[in-house]
Amino acid sequence: MSQFILKTEIPAGMTGVPNLFLDYYMPAANGEYVKVYLYLLRALHHTSRELSVSSLADALDHTESDILRALKYWEKQKLLRLECSASKELQGIYLLEIPMPEGQTEPLIPEERSLSPASAPSPAVPARRSYSREEIAGFSEQAQCRQLLFVCEQYLKKSLSPSEIETLLYFYDQLHFSADLIEYLVEYCVCKGSRSIHYIETVALAWAEAGITTVSQARERTTTYTRGCFAIMKAFGIGDRNPVEPELKYIETWLHTYDFTLELVLEACRRTMERLHRPSFEYADRILKKWTEQKVHTLADVTALDQAHKGRSGQKKADRPVKPTGFSNFEQRDYDFDELEKQLLQSQ
User: Fold this and answer.
1) 204 with 214: CB under 8 angstroms?
2) What is the mean pLDDT of residues 253-276?
3) How much is the pLDDT for 43?
């Protein structure tokens, strides 16, 4: 296949992934499709790189058909536009500004449980900034930072990359996490089965939004969360392993972003098993997302929704006209069965 040109409406300067994509489009997409879209974002800032369907297939270890299916999927989602020749040969890909999905009026903003009173506003989380080599060197000269980076390398079982060092410095310098809190954060994520710096950052931001500043506060939150994890895995009939990272993200979303009680999450798991007869985090998430839209807060709200649904279904059935059958030609008779039984007994 011939080469094509890659163009965009997205501002250049960095390989950024828009929040709208992460919040709305990525969760519903096939993982292989996501890889293709992210690769295109990365390729935007390497104009010297020759692009073609075959080069994408080689880079991502896909077939060319896989690449074309992914491109057509994102075109259908209106995240890109394919430009083809008269012979239908791909000549260009135009990455569009990501639209807000239909039915949504504002970005998805996680609402974390806070250990402070409900009336207290959540603390503002500072935006992450880049560090120069001189700044990183300056932090590395501090004994506390040097010790922190060493401990994190032991937990992650590898040397830290410059990007990972910057992320940890973001926790320390901008989120104002103490070294002890960062160590507990990394230890907690590793014990849950994830050494991904991106997942560690997700948890750190959730803690910052929840106003967590000490190890004791973090431990209280994680203890509650860990109990929830075990209860959810048990509800799905999974008792021989810990949840893996994608499952942990679902659980984090249910308990903290959707802000559901464990009782409601377990009810969604029960309904999933009852319907599918197998565990499915995706199906349970659809249930809980629907409950979020319907402003469900308690099991009583769920019961009220069930009764309303049953009432609508019953009304539709009652309104449906009865089709005549062959039996309708017979004359209907009313019998007094008590009198018939009395006559039968007298005749014996």
Assistant:
1) no
2) 91
3) 82
CB neighbour class for 16 (10 Å; exposed up to 12, middle 13-18, buried from 19): exposed
Cα–Cα distance list, 189 to 7, 152, 159, 171, 186 (Å):
38, 11, 17, 15, 5
**Distance between CA atoms of residues 193 and 203, nearest Å:** 13
Q: What is the pLDDT of residues 75-115, one digit of tens each?
A: 988 899 998 888 888 888 988 888 887 665 555 544 333 33
Cα-to-chain-centroid distance, residue 86: 40
Separation of alpha carbons 206 and 219, rounded Å? 14
Residue 237 per-residue DSSP state: T
Across the chain, what does the average pLDDT equal? 80
Q: What is the rounded (10 degree) CA torsion for 269, 73, 32, 189?
A: -50
Quickly list DSSP for 39-80. HHHHHTT-TTS--BHHHHHHHHT--HHHHHHHHHHHHHTTSE
Alpha-carbon span 285 to 166, nearest angstrom: 33
The whole-angstrom separation of Cα 195 and Cα 147 is 19
Structure tokens at 294: 């319907």
pLDDT at position 249: 83
User: What backbone torsions phi and psi does residue 315 show, to the nearest 5 degrees?
Assistant: -65, -40
Q: Give the number of other Cβ atoms within 10 Å of residue 305's Cβ.
A: 14
DSSP string, 274-318: HHHSS--HHHHHHHHHHHHHTT--SHHHHHHHHHHHHHHHHHHHH
C-alpha angle 110-171-23 in degrees, rounded to nearest 5: 25
Identify whether the C-beta of residue 42 lies closer than 8 Å to the C-beta of residue 119.
no
Residue 113 structure tokens: 């449980």
pTM over 0.70: no
The single-letter code of the amino acid at 212 is I
Q: At what angle do helices 245-252 and 215-235 cross, to 10 degrees?
A: 110
pLDDT at residue 6 in the model: 61
CA distances from 56 to 39, 48, 59, 70, 247 (A): 8, 15, 5, 11, 29
Rg of the chain over all Cα atoms, to the nearest angstrom: 29
